[in-house]
Amino acid sequence: MTHPRTSFVAWLMRWLRRCLRRADSPGAGSAADCAAVTGLRSLDQQMVTQLGRAVGLSEQSALQLVSEVSGLRVLSSRLVDYLAHAHKQSEAMQGGIEQNSLIVKELATFVQTLPQQIAQERDQLKLLMREVKSLAEMTDSIRAIARQTEILAINAAIEAARAGESGRGFAVLAGEVRRLATQSNESAVKINRDITRLVNTVEVNYSGEFEARTRHNEAEAERLGGLTRQLDESYVDMRQFYSMLMTAITQHNTELDHGIGLLLDTAQYQDVFKQIVDRVQPAIDSRNVVLADLIARLRAGQHDTAEIDARAAALTPDYLAAEALHRDPDAAAAVAPGAPGARIELF
Amino acid sequence: MAHILLIDDDELLRDTVLQMLQRLDHRVTEAGCGEDGLKLFGAGAGIDLVITDILMPGIDGARVIVELRRRSPNVPVIAISGGRRMLSPEFNLKTASLAGATCELAKPFGLQDLRSALDEALASDVRR
Questions:
Q1: Domain of B95: which CATH number?
Q2: Taking CB atoms and an 8 Å limit, are A248 and B99 in contact across chains?
Q3: In chain B, how many domains are there?
Q4: Does a structural domain hold residue B69?
Q5: Cβ-nearest to B100 among A92, A245, A251
Q6: What is the DSSP string of A138-152?
Q7: Is residue B127 part of a domain?
Q8: Nearest to B39 by CA among B73, B5, B76
Q9: Is B98's CB within 8 Å of A82's CB?
């Protein structure tokens, strides 16, 4: 589809060329010889030149725009493709994260059971301590028996000294010794029984079960250690995922920003085009005024056109002077910054 | 013969790739991490091409590529990656591509794969 402004320029150029052809045609007569007409022709030629430049700039910038927009499209397609991969990757990571939460639950369960196990072992230890204390009491009992036996032995020695006088005292002492022997025997049996029970308690609670539980806990700790390492690797991977995502997208956006900058630079040529066309309009208006005055004077039979000739002759220099106040960006780039000169045609 | 900078934190793999590159008559400078790789690249060693791993501790391969592009937009870069527990090689290599890698190679690769990637990268003096 043709842009309205382009079609207007095309029409304008056709019209100007037609004017030039008419002025050049053999039948143009006295008007063609008139200096005013020569001035108008000169202006028309300059306007055709400027409009041709404008069309050239417009075409060039349009092609450039198409090329740059195509480049941006490729860039954005790459981003879309990348984001699709990133999405797939994040979904896969989601599975990993769910697995990680199971690992965390297992770790929590293990850690939660530890206090229970410790409490159970503390209770068993208390029981063991009670058993040990009861043994200590037995030891006290044996000590008391020993003390009494010692006293008895002393008494027996004393009675032995009197042996010749009376043997009755020995009979009493013998009875006491028997009683103590019986008591010692009972205590020994009780101690033996308590020790057996203590050994059994230790064996049951602290050998088999304790060892099994310790082995289980060691195995669990090792397994959970492996899972914890997996957890750590997952966090490293997740951190790297987001870091790489940010790097890639930042880099892509930098390129996109650069591409958009180029696009805007190129788009400014469209404004240059508009400005050139806009500047043609006042020149045409001035031209038409001069032409109307010329026609009116000729129709009125006044052949002195010197004043109109001078106005017509001034049209082209005026137009070119106005054009010279403007400069396209390429030409402007060749001028040192800050140097006096034409206004740069940008937005 | 090209002067190639090889960046990979995996010593075993680096050694394997080094031997492949030497078999292909290239001169190789090695780096065990992104930081060292960038230092060597900036040391005026006259590097013709860079091969970099993507998943590395510290400065990862994607950031290495971005920095290489900033310093030298035309140096060809081959990205290599094998993936990890939660990161697939496809994603890593796509990231490398968006960051500016000239071409990508999934680990593990053979001599022929490496030769093709080198031919492609060395033939392209401008980034994609």
A1: 3.40.50.2300
A2: yes
A3: 1
A4: yes
A5: A251
A6: HHHHHHHHHHHHHHH
A7: no
A8: B5
A9: yes
**What was the ipTM of the complex prediction?**
0.85
First to last CA, chain B: 23
DSSP secondary structure, chain B, as one string: --EEEEE-S-HHHHHHHHHHHHHTT-EEEEESSHHHHHHHHHTT---SEEEEESS-SSS-HHHHHHHHHHH-TT--EEEEE---SS--HHHHHHHHHHHT-SEEEESS--HHHHHHHHHHHHH--S--
Among the partner residues B62, B84, B87, nearest to A248 by beta-carbon distance? B62
Residue B33 lies in a domain: yes
Residue numbers in A near B98 (CB within 8 A): 78-79, 82, 248-249, 251-252
User: In A, which residues are within 8 Å of B92 by CB distance?
Assistant: 244
Adjacent-strand bridge partners of B49 = B4
Taking chain A, what is the end-to-end CA distance rounded to the nearest angstrom?
A: 25
Tell me, what amino acid is at A68? E
Q: Determine if the peptide bond prior to A340 is cis (ω within 30°).
A: no
Number of A–B residue contacts, CB under 8 Å:
70
What letter does residue A340 receive in the DSSP assignment?
S
- Chain A closest CA to B44's CA: distance in Å? 25
Cα torsion through A116, A117, A123, A128, rounded to 10: 180
β-sheet with B49-53: strand ranges across: B27-31, B3-7, B49-53, B77-81, B103-106
Per-residue model confidence as pLDDT tens digits over B94-120 = 999 999 999 999 999 999 999 999 999
Rounded CA separation B28/B114 (Å): 14
Q: Which helix (H) or strand (E) holds A20?
A: helix A4-24
**A6 pLDDT higher than 70:** no
Task: Give the closest-approach CA distance of B25 to chain A in angstroms.
Answer: 33
Residue B127's pLDDT band (cuts 50, 70, 90): very low
The whole-number average pLDDT for the span A21-48 is: 73
Domain containing B36: what range?
A: 3-121
- CA-CA distance, A148 to A270, in Å (whole number)? 127
Name the closest residue on chain A to residue B62, using Cα atoms: A244
Sole residue written with tokens 């019986």: A182
Contact B100, B66 (CB under 8 A): yes
pLDDT digits (tens, 9 = 90+) for B43-76: 877 899 999 999 999 999 999 999 999 999 899 9
Could you state, in order of their start, the residue ranges of all structural domains in chain A? Answer: 4-344
B126 part of a folded domain: no
Q: Summarize pLDDT for B16-51 with one digit per residue, the tens.
A: 999 999 999 999 999 999 999 999 998 877 899 999
> Using one digit for the tens of pLDDT, what is the confidence trace for A308-346?
999 999 999 998 888 887 765 555 555 554 444 444 454
**CB distance A247–B95 less than 8 Å?**
yes
